[in-house]
Structures are given as C-alpha cells and as structure tokens.
Specification:
Elements lengths: L1 H13 L2 H25 L5 H7 L6 H32 L14 H33 L2 H22 L2 H6 L6 H8 L3 H25 L4 H31 L7
C-alpha cells in the first residue's frame, strides 16, 4: 500500500507534467529573481562569502538580512506552489503561465506550515540531542548515518500525520491538527511505510549525487535540482492524495 501511494503521487506529477511545471517553475524563477535583486540591493558581492569565512567581512549585518529575506521569499514560493498544486488536483483549478497568487490562501498556508514545523521541530530537537549523544559515545559513522536516516523518517512520518491541515487550508476548509491525526490513524501503517521509503530514497539519491559531484559538478547540480523538485512535488502530492482519500473519501487510483 505504501508503494501504491508513492507511485500514485509520481503518476500524479508526471501524468500532469505540464501543469506541475506551470505550478512550480514560474514561482521558483520569480523567487530567484527577487533573491538576486535583494542580493544586489544589499550591496553584496560573491567575495563576501569568503570574507565571512575568514571573519573579516564588513557586511555581516547586510548578509544576515539578505539570508533572512531569502528564507522568507522561498517560504512564500513553497506555499505558492503547494496551494496551486493542491487546488489543481482537488479542485481542477488549472494554472496559467504563473499560478494564481492574488486571492489565494497563501498567507494562511504559510502560517499553518510554520505551526506544524514548530511542533515537529520540538520532537526533532529532542531526537537530535539523543542522536548526537549516541554518536559521540560510540564514534560510529555507521550508527550516525542510520540515526540520521531514522530522523528523516520521523520528520516525514509526523509531517504526513498532521499535514492534512495544509491541503485543507489551501481549499479554505477548517481542519485541526488533532483531526488530521485522527483522520490519518487508519492509514498509520501505510504512512509509516511511505516515510521509511522516502527517507531511504532521499538518503540513497543524496549519496549518489554527492559522488557525482566529485567528477561532474554541473551534471550533479542539475541532478540535485531535479531531485529536490521531485521530492518537493511528491511530498505535496502525497498530502493531497491523503486529504482526498481520507477527508473527501475519494478512492485511491492504481
């Protein structure tokens, strides 16, 4: 069942590839343009990176503000993409060259995302402390890798259990975290499997791309960007599928 859900999400993306690209590429380019303009607007140049590493940068304050603004911009871009994809799949709201922005619940989506991220961060902080302690005591790289993958699994599992709040927000339908937990309980085992598969795939793909960087940097960069795009869209698609199946009672399509 876990593989079925993941494959369904891949089919959702690549079966509607034109719409997936319209939903995501435009907002990403807009975000990168704004980040580039912000970089220039703060009077920064590429030399400031090496200067900061050496502790001699005079633009530390400007660099901090730039990084903060870049994070805000990319958060808005992610919410823009997610809202548009949820609404395309669940409401058949087709995107134009750029997906709709004005009048969409993007602000509310960002707010819910921050709340969910904070809840998960509290759990991750505790687990990361334990992982760090065990790694320091054993000095085992294998254990560190295993625990790191396990941490990724926990984050994915919790996100899918409480994350139905997000497609509900995109549709302007009220849904509480407790209601998301209750709705996903019947599929907890499937979500467990999905989270494990995604954590392992993410680790393996990152490992492969990391090796490619050693001899073909440009190819590795392209693969890295493509892999990140796929993982982002798959994550959004899985939440969309779970919401449609568990809340709207739609059947899972093979």
């Amino acid at each position: 069942m876990a593989w079925k859900l993941i494959l369904h999400s891949f089919n959702m993306i690549f079966g509607n590839l034109a719409e997936a690209l319209k939903v995501s590429v435009g907002p990403i380019l807009v975000g990168l343009l704004l980040i580039g303009l912000s970089f220039l607007g703060f009077g920064l140049n590429f030399e400031f990176l090496s200067e900061m590493e050496q502790g001699s940068s005079a633009n530390t304050g400007a660099a901090f503000l730039f990084v903060l603004l870049a994070i805000i911009i990319m958060t808005v871009v992610f919410a823009w993409i997610a809202v548009a994809w949820h609404r395309f799949v669940l409401l058949e709201q087709y995107p134009g060259i750029l997906p709709a922005f004005r009048g969409q619940p993007i602000g509310a989506y960002i707010g819910r995302t921050l709340v969910l991220s904070l809840l998960i961060a509290l759990v991750v902080f505790a687990l990361a402390f334990v992982i760090g302690l065990l790694t320091a005591l054993t000095a085992s790289m294998g254990l560190a890798i295993f625990l790191g993958v396990g941490l990724g699994f926990v984050v994915s599992y919790l996100w899918l259990r409480i994350g139905l709040v997000l497609p509900a927000t995109a549709l302007r339908e009220p849904l509480k975290v407790s209601e998301s937990m209750a709705a996903t309980k019947p599929m907890a085992g499937t979500i467990f499997g999905v989270s494990a598969i995604l954590a392992i795939l993410n680790f393996l793909i990152s490992l492969i791309i990391g090796q490619v960087y050693n001899f073909a940097g440009i190819i590795a960069f392209v693969l890295d960007v493509a892999a990140n795009w796929v993982f982002i869209m798959v994550g959004i698609s899985i939440l969309t599928t779970l919401y449609g199946h568990l809340i709207e009672k739609r059947p899972l399509i093979d």
